[in-house]
Design goal:
It is built from 5 helices and 5 strands; from the N terminus they run βαββααββαα. The protein is an alpha+beta fold. The chain has a 5-stranded antiparallel beta sheet with strand order 1-5-4-3-2.
Length: 172
């Protein structure tokens, strides 16, 4: 690609929500989730029962830096009020460092797996890129399905169903 400009297109995201049940243990469901097959995505947070997946950040501008810049702006404006109190009218400018974070729509997605009475409930919810949604669909379809539970006996008979009916039973 020598001499050609590479255009980086912003990936569009779609709302993604799915829930399924499986017989595989929750720890295995989360451990076997291979995010390396989806380029540009990383596990941002890992818990005992969940993963938070988001794209790789190109630069480190987050809430901590935005808060620091906002505090610096507020302090500068408060110091400038010594010159003239009219500077306080510019105090809403301190919100400007937060705007990039409010506008940023990165595809964050949470995948959770919780065991409950021999079955594992797997849910995924959030914003996903097309590649991530496709991979999640294939991964969740590959999980072994939950075996149907045997029917439970009716508990209302109180033993009368096993009793034999004879003629002596109804006689006086």
């Amino acid at each position: 690609m020598r001499g050609q400009a590479v255009i980086h297109k912003r990936t569009s995201t779609v709302p993604y929500q799915i829930a399924t049940r499986t017989s595989r243990p929750a720890t295995e469901v989360l451990a076997q989730f291979d995010l390396e097959r989806v380029p540009g995505m990383v596990v941002a947070e890992r818990g005992a029962h969940y993963l938070v997946i988001r794209p790789v950040r190109r630069f480190r501008y987050g809430a901590d830096m935005a808060t620091g810049f906002a505090i610096a702006i507020v302090l500068a404006l408060l110091i400038l009020t010594a010159v003239t109190p009219v500077v306080l009218a510019a105090l809403p400018v301190a919100v400007l460092p937060a705007l990039p974070l409010l506008i940023d729509h990165r595809p964050d997605l949470a995948l959770s797996a919780i065991e409950d009475e021999g079955e594992t409930r797997v849910t995924a919810h959030g914003q996903a890129s097309a590649d991530l949604a496709e991979y999640l669909d294939r991964y969740l379809e590959s999980l072994p399905p939950l075996a149907p539970a045997p029917p439970e006996p009716d508990g209302e008979d109180d033993g009368w169903a096993d009793a034999e009916m004879t003629e002596d039973f109804f006689s006086e």
